[in-house]
TrEMBL record:
InterPro entries, A to Z: Asp/hSer_DH_NAD-bd, HDH_cat, HDH_CS, NAD(P)-bd_dom_sf
Keyword GTP-binding carried by entry: no
One GO term of the biological process aspect: methionine biosynthetic process
Annotated ranges, domain Aspartate/homoserine dehydrogenase NAD-binding: 13-123
Coiled coil: none
Organism: Rufibacter immobilis
Name used for this protein in its record: Homoserine dehydrogenase
Start and end residues of each Homoserine dehydrogenase catalytic domain: 131-310
NCBIfam families: PRK06349.1 (NF004976)
UniProt cross-references to Pfam families, sorted A to Z: Homoserine_dh (PF00742), NAD_binding_3 (PF03447)
Length: 415
């Protein structure tokens, strides 16, 4: 692309992210980028620009050869995949902020780029304004990583901050998050942990060289968090954070999981509050590094989209270095054991999870809570049953170290 020419952008979607990008480019007049066409779905929806500013036919935008870069920022992941895959078949340069789209279709998107020569970047899909994908992809390209974990959802983190810092009830904190635009009217993806799961799948591909299907990741959220659960955390001088994590076991197997977790003041994630995200990347040689930034909002995410626009216009593409190096992708450590807290009204869940090393925490007339050890495989198998029962599960620490790992560490320390 000619560096001196004004580059024209075709934008799909004009919600939080699309408007954030448009506003940034409107303010930064020195940048050689202009949103030339905006495609939206609903002609009746009230928007801050005149109706003449929009088109309603995505095929029309895809076929416009005047456009240099396409930006996809719609909420419907299936529709987004239709648009993005067709754009890649035409060899286009595409930027997306849709984490569900990338998480579910990364192998297909890789194949389309390779076959037709298009390019897809998606920094904005993970952790808002934190440049975490590029960091893992480039800075840690040649260093083995031991673990990547963090708070990847600003909406749920805001809610938890209100509960622990302002003593607000869950429902009140959720409504406040919705009123501020951090959470959707249907907040399930955020509070149930599914959004964090999508982002973890993307990070895992770049960090460990394995494309995870979302179904391979055990995920639990804060949607069933109750007062007795956060009181338990406070009794242990901890707060609760929704933590997404992938790490390698000593056998070289992966442990991908999303779990609410007890976090104390010694933890890197303890001070990540409100709508902020925090990601800890642990290199074999560099050690742990914390990246913190806003994980929700139009401007932080729009800034990440803009960074991709600039990079793609200068010829950058992901090298997928860890994927390229990995001849045999690491297997899942299904027998890996984690220590968890379970609160439920259905005692049969203890058997479904195969909990061992049980300790009673509290027993009431309509519910009970216990601590026990569970395998990753059982967490994956039982997760739908747990959700249907309205039960709450959390890890006892954000490092997700299970009994086997603890014993291994102790053995090393003694030898």
């Amino acid at each position: 692309m000619d560096p001196h020419r004004l580059l024209k952008i075709g934008l799909f979607g004009f919600g939080c992210v699309g408007q954030g990008l448009y506003d940034i480019l409107s303010r930064e007049e020195s940048l050689p980028y202009k949103v030339e066409r905006i495609c939206v779905k609903d002609p009746q929806k009230l928007r801050p620009l005149s109706p003449e500013s929009f088109t309603y036919d995505w095929q029309e935008v895809l076929s416009d050869d005047r456009l240099d870069i396409l930006v996809e920022a719609i909420s419907d992941a299936d529709e987004a995949y239709t648009i993005v895959s067709e754009a890649l078949r035409r060899g286009k340069k595409v930027v997306t902020a849709n984490k569900k789209l990338v998480a579910y279709h990364l192998p297909q998107l890789l194949a389309l780029q390779q076959e037709f020569g298009g390019v897809l970047l998606y920094e904005a899909a993970v952790a808002g304004g934190i440049p975490i994908i590029r960091t893992v992809e480039e800075y840690f390209a040649n260093e083995p990583l031991e673990r990547v974990h963090g708070i990847l959802n600003g909406s749920s983190n805001y809610i938890l901050s209100q509960i622990f810092k302002q003593q607000k009830a869950y429902d009140e904190a959720l409504k406040e998050a919705q009123d501020k635009g951090f959470a959707e009217l249907d907040p399930w993806l955020d509070v149930a942990g599914a959004d964090s799961r999508h982002k973890l799948c993307i990070l895992t591909a770049h960090a460990f060289g394995r494309t995870l299907a979302p179904e391979e990741v055990a995920f639990f959220g804060i949607d069933f968090l109750g007062q007795q659960d956060w009181e338990y955390a406070k009794q242990h001088n901890a707060v609760i954070k929704l933590v997404a994590s992938t790490h390698l076991t000593s056998d070289g197997e992966l442990v991908p999981v999303v779990l609410p977790s007890l976090v104390d003041a010694s933890d890197d994630l303890y001070g990540v509050e409100q709508e902020f995200n925090g990601v800890v990347v642990q290199g074999a040689y560099a050690g742990p590094q914390l990246f913190k930034g806003k994980g929700a909002g139009g401007h932080p995410t729009g800034a990440a989209v803009l960074s991709d626009i600039i990079s793609i216009s200068k010829g950058y593409a992901y090298g997928y270095k860890k994927l390229a190096k990995t001849t045999n992708a690491p297997a899942l450590a299904l027998d890996y054991e984690l220590e968890v807290y379970l609160r439920s009204s259905e005692p049969e869940l203890v058997a479904s999870l195969g909990l061992t090393n049980l300790q009673n925490v509290q027993r009431g007339t309509d519910s009970f809570s216990v601590i026990g050890t569970v395998s990753l495989g059982n967490l994956i198998k039982a997760q739908e049953e747990i959700r249907k029962a309205g039960a709450y599960v959390m890890a006892l620490s954000s490092d997700f170290v299970g009994e086997k790992a603890k014993q291994a560490k102790e053995t090393v320390a003694l030898s």
